[in-house]
Amino acid sequence: MEKSHDEGLSRATIVSMVPYWPLFDLRLETSRLVLRPNRDDDFPGLLEPIDVGIHDPEAMPFSQPWTDVEPTLRNRKCNLSA
């Protein structure tokens, strides 16, 4: 799939990562659950619950306070549009 410079990416062809890291093809599946490595298209959906709040704001359950980062900045660091 080609992405143009206008879409915020360099002029390069985006190719499947499977030849470089075969674990991208790994998929463990049951009737109720599918486990697989995250891909770029997964990240917007993974970040949305953080914006809503995934823990009590008075407590920090993580050693790095990554949930306190302002959403626009966090999305930018993840190369997502703000």
Describe it.
This protein is mainly alpha-helical. The protein has one domain (5-77). The chain has helices at residues 43-52, 71-77; strands spanning 28-29, 34-35. The protein has a two-stranded antiparallel sheet with strand order 1-2. A hairpin with a 4-residue loop joins β1 (28-29) and β2 (34-35). The longest helix is centred in the middle third of the chain and has 10 residues, at 43-52. Mean pLDDT is 77; it is low at 1-6 and 9-13.
Secondary structure layout plus pairing:
Blueprint: E1 28-29, E2 34-35, H1 43-52, H2 71-77
Antiparallel strand pairs: 1-2
Keywords summarizing the entry:
extended; two-stranded antiparallel ribbon; mainly alpha; disordered N terminus; 5% strand; 82 residues; 2 strands
Strand count: 2
Uncertain ranges:
1-6, 9-13
Coarse structural class: mainly alpha
Sheet with the most strands, sense and barrel status:
2 strands, antiparallel
Q: Count up the domains.
A: 1
Per DSSP, what share of the residues sits in E-state strands of 2 or more residues? under 5%
Q: Specify the helix fraction band.
A: 10-25%
- Total DSSP helices: 2
Gap from first CA to last CA: 23 Å
Shape, please? Answer: extended
As a whole number of angstroms, the C-alpha radius of gyration is 16 Å
Average of the residue pLDDT scores: 77
| SSE ordering | EEHH
- Strand order in the largest sheet: 1-2
